[in-house]
Amino acid sequence: MSPLISELILPDAAATGRVAAGLAAVLRAGDIIVLHGDLGAGKSTLARFILQALGWPGEVPSPTFTLVQPYEDLPVPVWHCDLYRLDSPAEADALGLFETDAALLIEWPERLGHRLPADALQLWLEGSGDAPRRLTWRVPTAWEARWPANLPT
User: How many C-alpha atoms does 140 have within 13 Å on its Cβ side?
Assistant: First the structure.
């Protein structure tokens, strides 16, 4: 896996939306995007923007209580996952995350422990409230030709 390669400042929601649209444009079935960050850092917001960029017309609730919210009726089916409430990595096995062909957007991926696949695109968000967000990323080989090559500026 490549080292942490770069950062981008997202000054507002519009900038976050542009990054999400760039990700949605290259997302494929079976891809895994993991979203690291503290509470309120913008993980769910980025996931919502990705789903909207893929054409989801409705609300995108946080999957904090359901753990997994599937969006099957998209050009690329997506499961939006929030693993915050898991007590151990073994609990993730019951969710069937790695048995689906859907792309995965996973919040709180550290709850997976060693189960986190090496080919996951890892994104870190920092910031809270209305302040600009700092986005950094780690690009696995499977994503090198797609991200950040298409990153909107």
Answer: 13
Cα–Cα nearest to 105, from 120, 124, 85: 120
Q: What is the largest CA-CA distance in the chain?
A: 40
Determine the length of the chain. Answer: 153
153 residues of the chain, pLDDT tens digit each: 444 458 899 999 999 999 999 999 999 999 999 999 999 899 999 999 999 999 999 999 889 888 999 999 999 999 999 999 999 888 888 888 888 999 999 999 999 988 889 999 999 999 988 888 999 998 898 898 888 776 765
- Segments making up each domain of the chain, as ranges: 10-143
As a whole number of angstroms, the distance between CA 145 and CA 130 comes to 32
Q: Which residues, in sequence order, are CB contacts of 102 under 8 Å at separation 6+?
A: 29, 30, 70, 72, 76, 77, 78, 79
Q: Does domain 10-143 fall into CATH 3.40.50.300?
A: yes
Closest residue by Cα to residue 79 from 102, 98, 112 = 102
